[in-house]
Task: inverse folding
């Protein structure tokens, strides 16, 4: 539809006006500016999180490296049980622990050949060999670790050392008897230090595994005060199985007394002062 007062040629040729180059650029800037602004805003919002994540990753890497260095130099934060022994002889079964004062036992009483034989059957201080992977897995691989001729690492189970310590303390309570029977040990200058070591080891182990079973009390014949009942029923490892397993894994030694001489180039660790 044409207007009556406008020229037909003007309407036909001047209907749209061409924008200048500067106007086109301005229009383009107006369209793209909000998108670029949003991208910049998102970047600055995310930047602190990205930086924190990078710093956290670096901190974690440094922490892991520090733990590895500490394990090599000072030992592990937590020493694990020997998995092979735990799997093959570490199962538990119900066992009654008798705590009555007058109960007879082959392990108690005045020292004699039978009592000594009973205690000797529990002792096993000989060494066994474990692989590098096994000693590393329990967290005790050091540069100073003793390597046997077989290529394995020298080790023994803690249970046998603890039984040995208890036997040393038992014998020390009968010192007059054992200083004559075993003078090579009980007349040495270090016997007191050895005994104190055993007391300290057993103290720490008892405190570590603090027994939470109840000791109950009863009235008993001939006693006018409450009498403690120390007996309990517990799940225990079968020590006979542990002993048999350890005996089967003992390493035979060609050295006198089973003691391996230290190589001249051995890497050593420092002992704490007395």
Result:
């Amino acid at each position: 539809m044409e207007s009556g007062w406008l020229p037909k040629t003007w309407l036909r040729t001047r209907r749209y006006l061409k924008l200048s180059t500067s106007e086109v650029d301005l229009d383009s800037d107006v369209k793209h500016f909000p998108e670029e602004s949003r991208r910049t805003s998102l970047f600055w919002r995310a930047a602190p999180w990205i930086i924190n994540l990078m710093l956290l990753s670096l901190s974690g890497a440094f922490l892991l490296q520090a733990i590895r260095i500490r394990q090599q130099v000072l030992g592990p934060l937590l020493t694990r049980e020997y998995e092979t022994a735990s799997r093959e002889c570490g199962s538990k079964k119900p066992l009654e622990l008798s705590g009555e004062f007058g109960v007879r036992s082959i392990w108690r009483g005045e020292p004699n050949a039978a009592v000594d034989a009973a205690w000797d059957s529990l002792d096993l201080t000989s060494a066994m060999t474990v692989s590098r992977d096994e000693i590393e897995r329990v967290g005790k691989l050091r540069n100073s670790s003793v390597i046997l001729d077989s290529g394995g690492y020298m080790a023994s189970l803690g249970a046998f050392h603890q039984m040995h310590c208890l036997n040393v303390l038992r014998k020390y309570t009968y010192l007059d008897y054992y200083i004559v029977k075993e003078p090579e040990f009980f007349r040495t200058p270090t016997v007191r230090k050895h005994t104190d070591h055993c007391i300290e080891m057993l103290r720490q182990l008892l405190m570590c595994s603090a027994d939470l079973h109840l000791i109950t009390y009863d009235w008993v014949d001939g006693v006018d005060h409450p009498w403690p009942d120390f007996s309990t029923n517990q799940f225990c490892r079968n020590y006979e199985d542990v002993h048999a397993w350890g005996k089967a894994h003992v390493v035979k030694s060609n050295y006198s007394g089973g003691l391996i001489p230290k190589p001249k180039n051995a890497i050593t660790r420092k002992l704490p002062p007395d």
Observations:
- The first strand starts at residue 92 and ends at 97.
- The two ends are 115 Å apart (CA to CA).
- The mean pLDDT is 83.
- DSSP finds ten helices and six strands in the chain.
